[in-house]
Amino acid sequence: xxxxxxxxTHTVSSGHAYSTFxxxxxxxxxxxxxxxxxxxxxxxxxxxxxxxHFGNQRVVPDYLFGVRxxxxxxxxxxxxxxxxxxxxxxxxxxDVVLAGLHNVCSPVDSVEKNTMAMLEVMKNPWVDIIVHxxxxxxxxxxxxxxxxxxxxxxxxxxxxxxxxVSRQGSRPYCKKFAELAKAYGAKIILGTDSHFxxxxxxxxxxxxxxxxxxxxxxxVLNSSIDRILMHLNRRxxxxxxxxx
Length: 244
Ligand SMILES: [Zn+2]
Ligand SMILES: [Zn+2]
Prior knowledge:
Elements: E1 5-9, H1 21-30, E2 35-41, H2 51-55, E3 63-64, E4 67-76, H3 88-93, E5 96-100, H4 111-122, E6 129-130, H5 142-152, E7 155-159, H6 171-184, E8 188-191, H7 204-213, H8 225-232
Parallel strand pairs: 1-2, 2-4, 4-5, 5-6, 6-7, 7-8
Antiparallel strand pairs: 3-4
Helix pairs in contact: 4-5, 5-6
């Protein structure tokens, strides 16, 4: 399986990442990717950007070094009602909205409460992708999440960083999500969650997990530009349709 896009990357604006838009795009071009999404952490992350950062990303060209650059966010789920840390006006301007639970921004509680938070955020009409759902810090009812992802047409991420440098102990949970995604036909993306440009486009561990579970290429959004565009444009409420 070939991956032509990395839809989860961070820049210096996240506060604890160390490369710029230009460096990320350059790394994507060097790896032969056709598309990259810049998805800095939402404003609730300590050291994260001000909301203006997201609104003004439109000044960044759509193509850098021949790579299509999507402007996005990795928004924080900040309560059990699935509230995100960026308002609808700014979310509407973005090309891609990732959402996830983070221990410094999201309340950590029982399986029931964590699952509720994740289910609620999937109903948010601006959310495209749930990131690292297999994070062991937030145990959830994986079957409920995967069924809801199919119902609400949300993609679930297999996060390569969770299998390498972050969120220790994620692998069995990520594998469970991959198996359930296969069983229910949920959409999957692989993300590197790069906090430094050299990680961009390296999906080695996430790819190995996909191979173990036998997920079909048709389920994996970032193996095809058309699949990505179809997913991002499935919602008609975007201010601008996403084009390649
Ligand atoms: Zn994250
Ligand atoms: Zn991230």
